[in-house]
Target: Methyltransferase domain-containing protein
Amino acid sequence: MSKKLSNEGLREVWDRYAPRYDRDIGFFERIQFSGGREWVCPQATGDVLEVAIGTGLNLPHYPADVRLTGLDLSPAMLDIARTRAGELGREVELHEGDAQALPFPDESFDTVVCTLGLCGVPDEREAIAEMHRVLRTGGKLLLLDHVGSHHRIVHFGQSLLEKLSVRMCGDYQTRRPLPLVEQAGFVVQRQERLKLGMVERVAAVKP
Model:
């Protein structure tokens, strides 16, 4: 298995990558994740926490009446998100922090959103448990990510790519977070697999 990057290593990687992130992710958005942000964000209501907010690419897609908080490990990514929010006239409270240890009290939010973020967290089980903790009863969890395909040939290719991507930027290709979401105590209301099973959208609720 490829060696995991520490949080400090991940922060350095994403700080360096921040200036070109939007350009590079735009390519994958078109071929792999098209419509994903538009699927996730309009479902958010009330007090919303976006985990791994990155450069704020989701900001244009939220309803106008939600109250947004964003968290990311990378200060450079947050700087870009802050600029984007200003350009959009969108109020958002931004925090530097770790998805595995969210700096918020229990039951602080009505919705937690994470798009293309769980694949880059060292321990996705801890991150999902933290999302459950900070959600209020009846709150929604909304996820979008690339996941391990059920097609064996595709999964084999993902496994090969993962050996490089984990070492370079902490990005896992073969994770399947849905069982962990259910184990954390969420009730899955909607789940979709797209692109040969490599992309997953999940809407779940904390009962």
In short: The longest helix spans residues 7-31.
